[in-house]
Predict the structure.
Amino acid sequence: MPELPEVETIRSDLEKKIKGLKFTGVEIRLPKIIKSGASKLLTELKNKEILSVNRKGKLIYFTLSDELFLIVHLRMTGQLIYKNKKQIIAGGHSDTLEQVQVPNKHTHVILELSDDSKIYYNDLRQFGVIKTANKNELEKELKKYGTDPILEKFPLDEFEKILGNRSTRNIKAFLLDQKKVSGLGNIYVDEVLFLSRVLPERTVQSLKKSEIKLIHEHIVKVLKLAIKERGTTFNNYSDADGNKGNFLKHLKVYQRAGKECLVCKNEIYKIKLAGRGTHFCKKCQK
DNA sequence: CTTCTTGTTACTGA
DNA sequence: ATCAGTAACAAGAA
């Protein structure tokens, strides 16, 4: 499940590989993925240069020449896998067994680039989104996302302002809300709240100043460490080279239901909150 | 067979 | 307006 660190890993890898190249072709195997209209995608993209690859929260967007943008949201199981000409000629066989083979039955869109490399969009559950946008449409889209704690300045007083002091919403649901702070998903919210020693059911208005400070600190810390580790591979996630992320070894509560808390040895509980599996330690978190 | 999984949006009802 | 809860989307794992 790609969250901010996974999306950032893909973004930075891709940018290094494709900046300055042009789109030469597209192969669309599942038209419903292209929300801006599959039939016109080729004419829109053809000969456009890739100026940069950008991100806000979990959204990736390619900045192209002529003020055009290509927006990609991976949702739950989307992947962007890059292969250069040599790798394609080798028949999709990769250097290590760990890597994702492409194209495969979940490859729905293939973007072809001017140096004969390709980007394969895979999506097992087909919830992902690819669409083109002009400058206006992009800005409208970006407005749906709150502050990105890695991309933008994110001082404590701004986080306090975002939280407000009247919300009766639980902190887990609040942190998952992309309009408030963008980029956190189920894995990293559980980890942040464990490290901050705050129970996920706590309402925003019940949080003490010291707890808000800890949550703020750990949002930035956890995301930065996870980017350094190139993300968490639990199920489906892989980076642009088809490799897995290394954050799994840092997980304290996520996917550890029934196991011993690494701090106090009590049992890690799992409940459903904000419609999500939520992991926590009753003893460590208050 | 059933249940569970997650990101996001849409909907309902409080 | 705000929020909780749930369904929907789809495929696979257990």
Observations:
- The CA atoms of residues 269 and 282 of chain A lie 7 Å apart.
